[in-house]
């Protein structure tokens, strides 16, 4: 079982706290190039030093900003690898899946099915309110976005999945010896991680339902499927297709996407619908394809100490 792979006598919970700090430090190291670039741009260009995150994100051309921001996730991913290997004496595979090897078909299926849902929902919204969107396509910047995004955005999303659905989920399992506590804690922390996103300032805290609900969905498919492959595919599609498809002045990243959203953001059905309708539909599709059973035990049951191997 996936959670049991991280439960070992030497894997005390305090080690996960230390490991989390080390991963955060690795991420901070990865932010140095962006910080240096901002300082250089400010002093050489005689520009005003940006005082908030929104201003920082607009100081460079969007593709360069995306590249510089995503570098930190590559460092964080390296941090995950070294923490898992040298602090917990596990393999990266053990925080990826309970299978003998990574199931790339699962990643691909999850990626393409969420790409389909994303494109379908955008078409519906666009046809409903076409006045809210303008064609934003510029060939060269878009092609650069495709290359940079296709390489670095999956690293960003994979890093988050390895931290939350892999590393921390196993860590909380060590602490609680059950399945519901890791599921709830990682979902809440994942959601709260987005609290400083500009979308929250624009739409209000109600959008946290979407963020926490997404974390819960990703946690459920991880526990039911005994691995993070489906979560990896979903998260990569969500961020990459989103970055390529539509941008706005109030989103975290401004990209050279195909469309630009001119509407004033507001939290409504678009926040609730994915959590209460679309995610359950995806759960049904996944459950039928991968023959999931015994939901209650896999999501809320206790971890059987007899199953734990050292």
Automatic annotation (TrEMBL):
Give the keywords, sorted.
Membrane, Transmembrane, Transmembrane helix
Pfam families attached here? Rce1-like
Q: Which residues form the CAAX prenyl protease 2/Lysostaphin resistance protein A-like domain?
A: 142-241
* GO MF term list: endopeptidase activity
Q: Where are the transmembrane segments?
A: 13-40, 66-87, 107-127, 139-159, 180-197, 203-223, 230-247, 267-286
GTP-binding is among the record's keywords: no
Q: Return one Gene Ontology term, BP aspect.
A: CAAX-box protein maturation
Q: Does the keyword Membrane apply?
A: yes
Domain of life here? Bacteria
- InterPro entries associated with the record: Rce1/LyrA-like_dom
Q: Which protein is depicted?
A: CAAX prenyl protease 2/Lysostaphin resistance protein A-like domain-containing protein
Native source organism of the sequence: Flavobacterium bizetiae
């Amino acid at each position: 079982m996936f959670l049991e792979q991280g439960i070992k006598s030497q894997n005390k919970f305090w080690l996960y706290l230390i490991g989390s700090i080390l991963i955060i430090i690795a991420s901070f190291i990865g932010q140095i190039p962006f910080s240096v670039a901002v300082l250089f741009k400010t002093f050489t260009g005689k520009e005003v030093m940006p005082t908030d995150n929104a201003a920082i994100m607009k100081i460079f051309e969007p593709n360069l900003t995306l590249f510089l921001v995503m570098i930190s996730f590559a460092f964080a991913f390296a941090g995950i690898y070294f923490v898992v290997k040298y602090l917990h004496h596990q393999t990266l595979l053990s925080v990826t899946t309970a299978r003998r090897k990574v199931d790339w078909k699962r990643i691909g299926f999850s990626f393409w099915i969420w790409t389909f849902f994303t494109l379908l929902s955008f078409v519906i919204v666009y046809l409903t309110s076409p006045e809210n969107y303008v064609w934003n396509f510029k060939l060269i910047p878009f092609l650069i976005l495709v290359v940079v995004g296709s390489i670095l955005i999956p690293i960003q999303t994979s890093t988050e999945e390895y931290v939350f659905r892999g590393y921390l989920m196993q860590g909380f399992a060590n602490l609680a010896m059950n399945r519901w506590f890791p599921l709830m804690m990682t979902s809440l922390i994942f959601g709260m991680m987005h609290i400083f996103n500009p979308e929250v300032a624009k739409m209000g805290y109600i959008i946290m339902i979407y963020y926490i609900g997404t974390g819960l969905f990703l946690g459920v498919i991880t526990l039911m499927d005994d691995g993070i492959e489906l979560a990896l595919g979903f998260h990569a599609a969500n961020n990459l297709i989103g970055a390529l498809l539509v941008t706005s002045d109030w989103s975290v990243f401004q990209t050279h996407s195909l469309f630009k959203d001119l509407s004033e953001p507001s939290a409504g059905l678009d926040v609730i619908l994915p959590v209460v309708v679309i995610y359950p539909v995806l759960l049904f599709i996944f459950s039928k394809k991968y023959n999931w059973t015994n939901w209650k035990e896999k999501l809320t049951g206790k971890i059987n100490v007899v199953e734990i191997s050292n």
